[in-house]
Amino acid sequence: MKSGPFWKARDLICLGEDPSVYIRYPGGKSFYVAEELEEALREKGIETDQWELEEIFFRFVKPEIRDYLRPYVERSRKTKPRLRREEQLRAQAELHPFDRRRLIFLKLGGGRSETLLKKPLPFLNQLRDKSRDEIEQLLWDYEDRLRPREVVSYLYHAFALWEYFPGVLSRYIPEARLQEELDEALLKAICQVAQDESYRMGLGEDEVLREYLSRYVILYFDTTEAQRRFFEERRSGSWARKETLARAARYFGLSPETLRRMSRRELLRLFRERAKQLHPDKGGDKEAFILLHKVFEELMEALGYRRRA
Predict the structure, then answer these.
(1) pLDDT digits (tens, 9 = 90+) for 115-143
(2) Rg of the chain over all Cα atoms, to the nearest angstrom
(3) pLDDT tens sequence across 199-243
(4) Taking Cα atoms as reference points, which of 220, 217, 212 lies closest to residue 99?
(5) What percentage of the chain reaches a pLDDT higher than 90?
(6) Residue 23 forms beta bridges with which residues?
(7) Which among 255, 263, 257, 247 is positioned nearest to 299, based on CA atoms?
(8) Nearest in space to 212 (alpha carbons), one of 38, 96, 51, 41
(9) Are the C-beta atoms of residues 302 and 245 closer than 8 Å to each other?
(10) Which residue has the higher pLDDT, 307 or 132?
(11) Between 77 and 271, whose confidence is greater?
(12) d(Cα 300, Cα 302) in Å, to the nearest integer?
């Protein structure tokens, strides 16, 4: 259905939280969609058939059957006739850059999409004459096949995050970025896409964020959780111990290596000698004495209390 310059979708029937309840398995590696759904659509004046319904419901089929049937389904999908080179380039230039970059990565893997777009790419034609919802559902099917290690690279290219990092040598390499830099760049890019009217195709900003773009936030942070936890543990573990040791070394006027080599008895002797000088009963300063205790406790904890004479 076309409304103005955009193709739009409309709600026909509610499938509930689990559309797979409409799928029937007669046996073997096959399935069909419940006839009552086809009848319910016909009562609303919508003519459809099993072929169309099976294509729509394919993503909800049992994984083992879906994997078996996928090659046959993809070969049998109708494709638009090929265009001449100039016509193809004009046609794909009309597609939204975010949609083009996503499908290029999903079909061809990593690479500079702006370079690839200088070539005619007939597979991009499947994005033409579709509503925002149809495009997102199509890309969602492809995204489900991404391996976990591909997710960050996919989002980096899909949202053109290299634009946030002008460095020439590592511009297209997401691994060259600090985690916090990637987090910030991705969230900014998602908001920019949501604000783009040509992407929204007549939908509201809140609607596209909620229905379509929020999945990328979830996908990204779910994928990077392990890596994020690893760096946080390193920062709170070995990094923190190194800083504590350096701070104690400055306090006692020794090198970190010297403190690390000292036995527990030697460390206690070092503490007692300084404590004699700073104890308030010996004319020392109370705050300085408290600081000594704090530094020493942190030092012993950083060294693991495992040193013995």
Answers:
(1) 777 788 888 999 998 999 999 999 998 89
(2) 31
(3) 999 999 999 999 999 999 999 988 887 666 655 555 555 666 788
(4) 212
(5) 28
(6) 33
(7) 247
(8) 96
(9) yes
(10) 132
(11) 271
(12) 5
Q: How far apart (Å, rounded) are the C-alpha atoms in residues 109 and 116?
A: 11
What's the pLDDT score for residue 100? 94
Can you tell me the distance from the alpha carbon of 271 to that of 303, in angstroms, rounded to the nearest whole number?
15
Distances in Å between the Cα of 179 and the Cα atoms of 105, 153, 176, 225, 241 are: 22, 13, 9, 11, 22
Say which amino acid occupies 94: E
Residue 168, token pair as written in the block: 């020439």
Termini Cα distance of the chain = 83
Which residue type, as a one-letter code, is found at position 148? P
Ordered by start, the domain boundaries in the chain are 2-76, 85-235, 240-302
d(CA 25, CA 33): 9
Question: Residue 7 pairs with which residues in a beta bridge?
Answer: 2
What gap in Å lies between CA 5 and CA 64, rounded to an integer? 41
pLDDT greater than 60 at residue 148: yes
Any residues with CB less than 8 A from the CB of 134 and at least 6 apart, and which? 7, 9
Residue type at position 129: D
Q: State residue 190's pLDDT score.
A: 97
Q: What is the pLDDT of residues 51-106, one digit of tens each?
A: 778 888 888 999 898 888 887 776 655 555 678 889 999 999 999 999 999 999 99
- pLDDT average, residue stretch 267-296: 86
Question: Cα(148)–Cα(136) distance, rounded to whole angstroms?
Answer: 20
Asked if residues 122 and 83 have their Cβ atoms less than 8 Å apart, the reply is yes
- The secondary structure of residue 82, as a DSSP letter, is P
CA distances from 247 to 90, 251, 262, 298, 299 (A): 63, 6, 16, 10, 9
Amino acid, single-letter form, for residue 71:
P
